[in-house]
Amino acid sequence: MPTCENCGEKWTWKQTIKTMFRLVCPYCDKKQYESASSRTRGGVFMLFPVVFLPINAWLEISVGIALIIAIIFVFITFGLYPFILNLSSEEEPYW
Ligand SMILES: [Zn+2]
User: What are the boundaries of each domain within the chain?
Assistant: First the structure.
C-alpha cells in the first residue's frame, strides 16, 4: 500500500482507489505524485491487455468473451493499483 511521503501515513486500499486520479493525501491533504519506479511497474500492467490481444486472436475467442475478459483485466489492474503504487512528494521526471 502507498505511504504518504509528506506525513508518513499509510493509505488504505479504499483511500487509494478514491484518490487515484488526484493522489491527494487523505491525512494531510497534500498532493502526492506517483514515483518513477511505480510508474514503470504501472506501465507493465498496462501491457497485459496488449499482450492478451494476439493470444485472443490465436485462440479465436469470440468478441463477447474477449470483451468480458478485457473488463476483468481493467478491474484487476485497478484493484492491484494500490499495491504497486509508490508515492513521492515531488514530481519525478519520466526518464
Ligand atoms: Zn499525507
Answer: 13-88
